[in-house]
Amino acid sequence: MAGLFDDDPPPPPSGPSLFGDDAAPDPVPESAPAYRVLARKYRPTHFDDLIGQDGLVRTLRNAFAMNRIAHGFMFTGVRGVGKTTTARIIARALNCIGPDGTGSATADPCGVCANCRSILEDRHPDVIEMDAASNTGVDDVRAIIDATQFKPMMARTKVFIIDEVHMLSRNAFNALLKTLEEPPPHVKFIFATTEIRKVPITILSRCQRFDLKRVPIDTLAAHFAKVAAAEAISIEPGALDAIARAADGSVRDGLSLLDQAIALGPDAATITSDAVATMLGLADRSMVFDLMDAIAAGNTAQALGVLDHAHDNGAEPGQVMQDLLGLTHTLSRLKSIPSLATSSALPELERTRGRALAEQLSIPWLGRLWQMLQKGLADIDQATDRRACADMVLIRLCFVADAPTPGDLLRQLRDGAPTPTPAPQPPPLQRRRPVAARGGQRRAHQQRRRSPRANSRRERNPIHPPDAHPLRANRRPRS
Ligand SMILES: Nc1ncnc2c1ncn2[C@@H]1O[C@H](COP(=O)(O)OP(=O)(O)O)[C@@H](O)[C@H]1O
Ligand SMILES: [Mg+2]
Ligand SMILES: [Zn+2]
């Protein structure tokens, strides 16, 4: 892993000030080096330092070994997976002349020659980085095309790295086409984008395309452990795991979270899982599961209680509904793809509480919940009192369990008669709640079942046996 933990070289010393007088004294004493965020400090400088992109690295290495290097590259993938990093490594690989100044293009740039060093320091005259997000116009592209006409000043190859290339205007893309088709031999283009679908096919067909993958959680956690060790930071493995999950496959996002976690407790000997869980708002996430538990049990009081508590802690009603939608989606996926339940791609909470919930709920029930949540969210967005509207939506959701499914209704229409599936009396629900709460809820259930209104509805609607409740449908004997 050469170079992974090598610091980038320091920035070049600044020149005299604009008016010729001496540069202003640096307010920071020389002994305190400027702080650099982890993501910058640990930017890989070699192909072997890139994590989670083995396919890409293998192909690029082969290209260099066979000296078949494309003149245009297109890197795509979510933020922070190594697009810009790879582009810079390629720029060095193309231009490295080796420590003795006689080397040729190599997949393992030396890092010490003049070219390697100045590219690392971001000041090589022949490696031009442009952010298409702020240079979208045809004139910006014309400037690049003009620059391709001149031979490189000190490098072998002029490298143009264009980030977020999908932001270029249509005219700008068109202006680029001809040069990209047949660039001068001393020119390479490297494009990076997070939105490959916005890049015209005419551009894509002139480049070699690489799709950078989201980095798996295990790989991320191992990488962050190395970084923490290099920083002499003590952090619990559970905390690293939580950060790796929250990073959602992005190395940069994870390193930013690690930065934030380190800032949490400068005095603490060890950064704990609990501290990181709070920082990541995982406590809020368990609230969504509480809410789903309550809705599935049809327990209005409990659902409203959870929302009250979340609201007191600053949660926004619309966001709570969004979170519920997200959980409904996850639970439906869990039901449809059982192997997901053991996949490490799924966050801890989803694997434990999510799995338990998914076992108890049915797909039609989840589908109905999804639709009602969508409608509820739209209602909340238009409501003058969002909080009250959220309460009303929750109450409606708690009764979703008692409504007959479309299948039930169809059956009733088709048969014209009740479908008398005599339901044995369900044993009380087995829930993950304290015994006292369980008792209260059971009483509430029994009361609901005994209430004259409910009973008369059941008589009028005999196709709706008591076990149409999603939890009751899969009831398990109490152990
Ligand atoms: N595959 C990777 N392996 C190791 N570190 C990475 C990787 N991808 C991103 N990083 C880290 O994230 C930072 C930003 O990466 P960058 O290449 O700029 O991402 P992007 O894909 O958004 O261009 C890097 O400085 C590095 O610290
Ligand atoms: Mg980038
Ligand atoms: Zn070199």
Question: What do these coordinates show?
Answer:
The chain has 479 residues and is mainly alpha-helical. It folds into 3 domains: 38-211, P-loop containing nucleotide triphosphate hydrolases (Rossmann fold, 3-Layer(aba) Sandwich), CATH 3.40.50.300; 217-279, Orthogonal Bundle (Helicase, Ruva Protein, domain 3), CATH 1.10.8.60; 282-417, Zinc Finger, Delta Prime, domain 3. The protein is 50% helix and 6% strand. It has 21 helices and 5 strands. The chain has a 5-stranded parallel β-sheet, covered by helices on one side. α13 (300-312) packs antiparallel against α17 (386-398), α14 (317-336) runs antiparallel to α16 (363-382) and α16 (363-382) runs antiparallel to α17 (386-398). The longest helix is centred in the C-terminal third of the chain and has 20 residues, at 317-336. Mean pLDDT is 82; it is low at 10-25 and 419-479. Adenosine-5'-diphosphate (ADP) is lined by residues 39-40, 42-44, 50-53, 77, 79-85, 192, 251-252, 255.
What does this entry show, briefly?
By secondary structure, this protein is mainly alpha-helical.
Q: Return residue spans where pLDDT drops below 50 for at least 5 consecutive residues.
A: 10-25, 419-479
- Helical residue percent band: 40-55%
Class of secondary structure makeup? mainly alpha
The CATH first-level class of the largest domain comes to Alpha Beta
Termini Cα gap: 53 Å
Question: Which second-level CATH architecture of the largest domain applies?
Answer: 3-Layer(aba) Sandwich
